[in-house]
Amino acid sequence: MNKRQNAIYEFIKDNPGSTRSAVADYISKIHPGKNSRPTILRDIDLLLTEEKIHKSGSGRGTVYFANIDVEAYFAIEPDKRKLKSENFNFDIWADIRNMLNSNELAELDLLNEQYRKNISELSPASLKREIERLTIEFAWKSSKIEGNTYTLLDTERLIKEKIEAEGNDKSEAIMILNHKTAVDFIFDQPKLFENLTAAKIEHVHKLLTGDLEIGAGIRRKRIGITGTNYSPLDNQFQIKEALEKLTSFINELKHPLEKALAAVLMISYIQPFEDGNKRTARTIGNAILLAFNYCPLSYRSVDEIEYKKGMLLFYEQNDFKYFRKIFTEQFKMAVEKYF
Predict the structure, then answer these.
(1) Where does ATP bind (predicted)?
(2) Is 277 annotated as a binding residue?
(3) Which CATH class is domain 3-67?
(4) What is the pTM of this model?
(5) At 54, phi and psi to the nearest 5?
(6) pLDDT digits (tens, 9 = 90+) for 242-274
C-alpha cells in the first residue's frame, strides 16, 4: 500500500462504519491535491480486493470496516477484547446478506455440477458406501469440535460394528451415534428442508442430543460460552422470535450455499438450546445443502481451533469472513473427496 492507501486503511480501522465522504474529507486534510473522487474510489477498491477492508450496505449507504488481524485479535485475552456487542445484535440481519459474492457462488456452483454428475453415475451400492463414509467422518469431526476424544478409526468401528472404544466415556459414543441418526434422517428426507422451520431445527437437535441429559426444546435459562464475553439471549420468548426470524431469513435467501452458511453461523449465534447448538447448526447446514442437491460437508480437514476462532469472531464482531473461508474450503474438499 502507498501512504495514501495506508492512511485510508488506518482511518477506517479507527472509525468503523466510515462512509466514502468521511474518508474523502479525512484524506483531503492530510493529502491535499491527491484526493479526487476517482482516486479515493480506486484506493478503496484496492483495499477491498486485498481484503484489508470490507463494506456493508449499498449506494450512498455503503460503509466500510477494517478486516480483523485474526492472530493479533486472539493474542488478546478474552476480557480485554473489545466486542462489537456483548449481547445479541438484533440488527445483524443486514450484515449477513450477500455473504458469498457472485464470483464465489459461480465457482462453487461449477464444482457442485461435478458432484451432481458423480452421484448420478454411482450405483446404489457405491452411493450407499459414500454416504456411510461421509457420515462417519462428519460424526467424528463434528463430535471432535465439541471435545469428543474418539479417533476416526474408533468412530468407524462404533458406527459399523457398534463396538465402543475402551477407556472412553459412554457419552462420547452416544454423541457419535446420535450424529449418525441425525445424518440418516436428513439423507432419508432431504426435501423436508427446502423450507426451514423452527420445529425442524428442534427435531434435529433432539436427534443429536438424545440420551445425553440435555434438555429438549428452546432453553429457558441463561448460558455462557467458553472463551468469550458474548452473551446469547436469555429470554425464551426472544430466543423463539430470533429462531423464527432466522428461518424466515433463510427461506428468503436464493442460493443454497448462502442458506447453509447462514444456518451454521446463526444457529450457533442464537444458541437456542441448552447445549448441542453448533452440532445442530452443522447438521441443519447439511440438510439444506442436500435439499437443493448440493454436496454436504464432513468438515473432515478443518482444524478445531480455527473453527472455533471463526465462530468467536462472528459472536464478538459479527464478522463472518473467517468462517466463510472455512465453509467454502470444506465444501471444495467435500466435492473433491466424496462421491
Answers:
(1) 275-282
(2) yes
(3) mainly alpha
(4) 0.90
(5) -140, 165
(6) 999 999 999 999 999 999 999 999 999 999 999
